[in-house]
Amino acid sequence: MISQMLREAIAGVFSEVDVVLAYQQGFDKLHATPCFMTMPEEINKLVWSPLCVHNLTSYLPSLKKKKVAVVVKGCDSRTIVQYIEEGLINRDNVVIIGIPCNGVISVNKVLHETNHEPIEDITFGENGKITVKTLNNEKTLLLSDVCPDKCKTCQYPTPIIYDRLVGDPITSDKLPDCVYDDIKEFENKTLEERLQYWEKEFDRCIRCYACRNACPMCICQDSCIAETRDPHWISQKSKLSEKIMFHMIHTLHLAGRCVECGECERACPMGIPVNKLKRKINLDMKELYGYEPGVNPEDKPPMYTFKVDEVTIKEHKI
Amino acid sequence: MADTGFVQKEKLNDFLNELSKDAVVYAPCLEGDTVIFKTFSPNATLCLDRPANNPPKLAVFPQSETLFSFKYKKDAEDPRKMSVELDANTDFPRAVIFGARPCDAKGFRIYDRVYIDTNTPDPYYKGRREKTIIVTLCCSAPSPGCFCVAVGGGPAHREGSDVLITQLEKGYFIESVTDKGKAILKVPQIEDGAPYAEEAHKKQLGSHDLVKNPFGENGQPKISRSLFDLDEFWENMVGKCLSCGACTYLCPTCYCFNITDEQALENGERMRSWDGCMFPHFTLEGSGHNPRPTKFKRFKNRVGHKFLYYPEKYNGAIACCGCGRCIRYCPVSVDISEIVSYLRGSKFEFTNVPPENMEIDTNSQEQK
């Protein structure tokens, strides 16, 4: 069983590290929560299931001076690769415990299916079958129906980079050409339709910055343009234009850096599909520079380099 | 005038449209899968199935508001001289908050003590509050993370509400709680409520026991000061916090604000906007000093404000209404009720606190 193997893997690295980043049960049966283990007996708290949705690697840059072991899924491992590309972590200080992953759940999608009632119990069976119990109901769901969108096109179910691998590697059965189908479809809408769509979505934004703070690649930290007080780059007015401005800046700062872990969208308490913008810009970066963030530690992100003659940018060749 | 009434389910939208004729009506509306409090309009989809993602605090304490506008004027005779004209508006429209939950309504009482029941009432808050009628819907079931009964509330708690409504099979039983709330019962869609009173009162009692009480049965929590003042406790409890503002901005009792001048050449506005103690800039002083430089210190402030400092100042009243939003919508499921349980020693498995060798570099933690 993977949980038991993970337990053993963590027990095996405890002597080498200061802290282990893993998961424990959250406030109810539907939620796991990040867990910082510092003592071997804390391994008892460990949980591993499709509820382990968080990208734990987000904590790594803040723990730079420590030796850290971190549990990563395939998608999460891309963050570590990107950190290495950008020099944001010291690889020698990180022990990566990789777990091949068949998909996690989207808490929002499960809640949608169960009418937002508190979940009394959830069990994960064979073939992606999920049984969810609420006070008055029991429902069987399929993981493929209630997983985040990122799982539906996942190309990296097995971590790209790891020190220990728990379980057997899994190969993706999702077509690589379909990863951006939703974005391409969205691009077919007219400019007016797209503007209308985003205005409606961003109108709900409360500027809590959960999307930004959950983003592993948002590294400006407390110097973020959204909050600087001198000068006030973005007004404190709760206006649609200011909200859109913040999200556009967030998106542009992630050009060729976003590892598409989807944490921004998962963190949003108002259900705004913020990851869509970032994936759009990643698609652009792929088409322009043939670059995909977080897949090869030897890569250099295009925005970190400058070439006079970019082969794919026609405007350069007058 | 009768103190109770009843509105048929199918007449609810008409009822709200009627209220909208002479007041701004805020109601929980469905957008995608999100329920948000916003100005009700005939094409909005009302959603009373579950509490809104955001509380209705924005109706009385908007996310941003203009305190006054200002204009510099040059003296025509002597252009070196400038005068400033100020213009403040404290005249607010009548408003109705429809479909608040008992926790949301109780939240306004927590604001009232700060912004109204003082020798210097806040004219903006007070102006809006006095013109707002709060129509609260009793909860028929708890949502994930709810713990209202642990902080002196409940699914049919009346504190802060002007009107209480109870969803029944065929419609909504309406009862006024304050004199202000009686105005609602004059609306033509309302019929006699007396035949439904018994059923409604029975239903109101129904869900109380379903709400979890993390602080145990013996009433409201008392915080252990020694544990509260232990830095290691906070470092250990909130290492996973992302320092975002979801908890504070979605909180029906958080009322901290920031003031900024938005100026363009000769004119501008002085704005008041929400602030949140989870943000690194919170309490950053002009000198550059910040008395709460780490997320642990700020988190301690959030819990302390709600469960220690506020109660000390206001006769033991807790500044938390147990709505559970900060738990439900936290990206990493930080659970304030669990933290308070530890602080009052009502949690049995006390293994989390505090490991001797836990030494966290607060400066580097701060970076995230």
Describe the protein:
The complex is a heterodimer of chains A (about 325) and B (about 375). Chain A is of the alpha/beta class and about 325 residues long. Chain A folds into 3 domains: about 1-105 and about 155-175; about 105-145, Nuclear Transport Factor 2, Chain: A (Roll); about 180-320, no CATH class. Chain A is built from 11 helices and 8 strands. Chain A has a 5-stranded mixed beta sheet with strand order 2-1-3-4-8. Chain A has a 3-stranded antiparallel beta sheet with strand order 5-6-7. The relative contact order of chain A is 0.12. The mean pLDDT of chain A is about 95. Chain B has an 8-stranded mixed beta sheet. A 4-stranded antiparallel beta sheet of chain B has the order 5-4-12-11, with no helix packed on it. In chain B, strand 8 and strand 9 (about 170-175) form a beta hairpin. The longest helix of chain B is centred in the C-terminal third of the chain and has 19 residues, at about 295-315. Chain B is globular. Chains A and B meet through strand 2, helix 3, helix 8 and helix 10 of A and helix 7, strand 11 and helix 11 of B.
Strand line-up of the largest beta sheet of chain B = 3-2-6-7-8-9-1-10
Decide which structural class fits the backbone of chain A.
alpha/beta
| Dominant shape of chain B | globular
**What composes the largest sheet of chain B?**
8 strands, mixed
Biggest interface pair, counts:
A-B, 58 and 60 residues
Shape of chain A: globular
